[in-house]
Specification:
With 253 residues, the protein is an all-alpha fold. Helix content is 68%, strand content 0%. The model has no long low-confidence stretch (mean pLDDT 89).
Length: 253
């Protein structure tokens, strides 16, 4: 009697439908669109918070606006693209194995384009005088060369904090948590509250690039690229070599 049963089991396995593979649009195009949209919305809210700051809230208004906007966009778009919205985050996630190498450059391009769109929308809805007075929400806290080391170190440390939360909270298997979007948004809020007076607490080259391009304000712009990108390299090495789980670590597997 075992023979017919075995044949029937084999037939059942053969007719069982196989899970369909994701379409190329969902694999390659949709994540880039999500990064474009999410970055544009995040930077629009962030720039608008700076441009419309009444002056009595200090760093609280920009900190809450950036953190809440980022947490919400990561929550609703994270399952599509990972919710990076930041070239430094994409670099760090790629280094720890959470992003395929072929998607790194498309993500960067999508994020930079999203930054331009978000900053452009902020300019469109802001009175020209207020926009000019705030340099379009671009980062202009460096007035002299003597400030560059402090600003660069602040950007590296603040960005490292953000990258560590992203890589450990959203990518690393052992420490991954469903609260990652909230944690990421709170990290940005804390970074702006703590370091806004030192460097502006950019932590995001796309956030620096979009307003700088729209307002044509490039003073010391390179600092806001070098700091977050160096932080991505440092955190990527830290997670890969020391903090990651067995699937992530390069050594001692």
């Amino acid at each position: 009697m075992a023979g017919p049963c075995l044949v029937q089991e084999v037939m059942d396995m053969e007719v069982k439908p196989q899970p369909s593979q994701p379409h190329w649009y969902e694999l390659h195009v949709q994540p880039c669109l999500a990064e474009l949209l999410g970055t544009a919305l995040f930077i629009f809210i962030g720039c608008l918070a700076v441009l419309e700051d009444s002056g009595g809230t200090g760093r609280l208004q920009p900190a809450l606006a950036h953190g809440l906007a980022l947490g919400v966009t990561v929550t609703v778009l994270g399952d599509i693209s990972g919710g990076h919205f930041n070239p430094a985050v994409s670099l760090g996630v790629w280094l720890v194995g959470g992003l395929h190498m072929t998607m790194l450059i498309p993500y960067w391009l999508s994020q930079l384009c999203g930054g331009m769109i978000g900053a452009g929308l902020a300019k469109a809805v802001t009175p020209s005088e207020r926009f000019a007075n705030a340099s379009g929400g671009a980062f202009g806290g460096i007035a002299a060369d003597e400030q560059v080391p402090a600003v660069l170190v602040a950007e590296m440390v603040l960005s490292s904090f953000l990258l560590l939360v992203v890589c450990m909270g959203a990518v690393n298997g052992r420490s991954r948590t469903p609260l990652a979007p909230l944690c990421i948004g709170l990290t940005v809020t804390a970074g702006i509250l703590a370091g806004g007076g030192v460097s502006g607490a950019c932590m995001n080259p796309a956030r620096a690039f979009g307003p700088a391009l729209v307002a044509n304000y490039w003073d010391y712009h390179w600092v806001y690229w070098v700091g977050p990108m160096v932080a991505a390299l440092l955190v990527g090495a830290l997670v890969r070599l020391l903090l990651g789980d067995r699937a992530t670590r390069l050594l001692l597997k």
